[in-house]
Design the sequence.
């Protein structure tokens, strides 16, 4: 099972590329990812193996809920395949950079089966907004 953990801060270069941490590249099972924004403000980078399962769920959802085709279309229209180059960099299209507010520093955060790309300030703000509800079920996860 893929397991992306930790956080790494890198700079977005002038061409809109950011390096994937070597730990993330080692953990990925292939050299193809799907990048999209499904939950603002972050971007999510899915390994193709994880994306395949999500794609199946999207197709099932679209078939079962025909009125939801716009939502599915919105998700698939914002998704792009990315391939790390020989230096381990991925290209983030300019429209996704704008959507996530990425300009300069990019925080790459491992989230178990996916990698999230955040503006560092937005990430800290999101963490500050935690409600503490996790405390109620943390022992179920950690024992």
Sequence:
């Amino acid at each position: 099972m893929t397991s992306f953990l930790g956080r790494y801060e890198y700079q977005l270069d002038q061409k809109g590329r950011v390096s994937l941490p070597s730990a993330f590249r080692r953990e990925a099972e292939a050299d193809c990812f799907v990048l999209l924004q499904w939950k603002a403000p972050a971007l999510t980078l899915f390994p193709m193996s994880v994306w395949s399962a999500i794609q199946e769920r999207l197709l099932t959802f679209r078939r079962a809920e025909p009125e939801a085709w716009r939502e599915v279309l919105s998700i698939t229209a914002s998704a792009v395949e990315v391939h790390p180059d020989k230096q381990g960099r991925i290209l983030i299209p300019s429209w996704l950079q704008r959507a996530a507010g990425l300009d300069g520093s990019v925080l790459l955060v491992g989230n178990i089966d996916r990698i999230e790309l955040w503006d560092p300030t937005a990430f800290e703000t999101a963490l500050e907004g935690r409600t503490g509800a996790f405390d109620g079920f943390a022992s179920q996860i950690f024992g």
User: Anything to note?
Assistant: The first strand starts at residue 7 and ends at 11. Residues 7 and 56 are 29 Å apart (CA to CA). The chain has one domain: 7-129.
